[in-house]
Amino acid sequence: MNAKVIDHPLIQHKLSLIRNIHTGTKEFRELLEEISMLMAFEITRDLPLEDVEIETPVAKCTCKMLSGKKLGIVPILRAGLGMTNGVVRLIPAVKVGHIGLYRDPQTLMPVEYYCKLPSDVAERDFILIDPMLATGNSLAASIDILKRKGAKNIKCMCLVASPEGIQLINNAHPDVDIFVAAIDEKLNDHGYIVPGLGDAGDRIFGTK
C-alpha cells in the first residue's frame, strides 16, 4: 500500500491519548493540533532549499532557506479543520482552501456542498487534510476536485486510516502519497474505522 506511517514516538503517544474515550473535547483539540504540526514537519521534509547570504552579528555566511515553493493545504470540512492550525503554525505563509463534503448515511458516498481554493491552484503543491481515512470515498472525491481545478502535486495527511481506504486511494489516485499516524485493523459495517477513535468531527467540536 502506498501509505507512509509516521511513527515518531511523540505522535504515537499523543495518538493513544486521542483514541481514549475519556479524553475530553479540549484535550482532543489540543492533541490533534500538536499531532498535525508534528506530521506536517515530516511531510514537508522534501521541500526545496536554496543558498542565501546573510550577515550574523559575527560575520557573513551562506545559509539555507526555503526556495519559495508555493504550498496550499485543504482541510476537508468539517473534521479537517481540527488539523489546520497545527500546519499553519508550522508554515504561516501557507494558503488554506476548503472542501466541504458530507457522507450520505445510506450509500456512504460523499456529497460536495462547498469548495473554495486559492486562485493559483496549478502553481501550488497541496496537502489534503482529514483526520479519518475510512472508506476513502471523501478523500478520493476531494482529490478529484483538486485535480479538476488544476492541482498537479497532492499529498494526503490523515490521522488514522483503514486498509480499505488506503487501497481505494491507491487504485483511484496512484500518484498521490498518503501520510498517516496509524493504519488500523478494518472498517465495521457502518463504515467506521476499528479500533479508530470514534467520529473525529463530533469529538473536535463536542457535538456528541
UniProtKB/TrEMBL annotation:
Keywords: Allosteric enzyme, Glycosyltransferase, GTP-binding, Magnesium, Nucleotide-binding, Transferase. The gene is upp. Belongs to the UPRTase family. HAMAP family: Upp_B. Its EC number is 2.4.2.9. It is an enzyme of class 2 (transferase). Binds 1 Mg(2+) ion per subunit. The magnesium is bound as Mg-PRPP. Its cofactor is Mg(2+). Residues 5-207 form the Phosphoribosyltransferase domain. PANTHER family: ADENINE PHOSPHORIBOSYLTRANSFERASE, URACIL PHOSPHORIBOSYLTRANSFERASE, CHLOROPLASTIC. 5-phospho-alpha-D-ribose 1-diphosphate binds at residues 78, 103, 130-138, 199. Allosterically activated by GTP. Pathway: Pyrimidine metabolism; UMP biosynthesis via salvage pathway; UMP from uracil: step 1/1. Transmembrane segments: none annotated. It comes from Pelosinus propionicus DSM 13327. InterPro entries: PRTase-like, PRTase_dom, Upp_B, UPRT, UPRTase/APRTase. Uracil binds at residues 193, 198-200. GO terms for cellular component: cytoplasm. This is Uracil phosphoribosyltransferase.
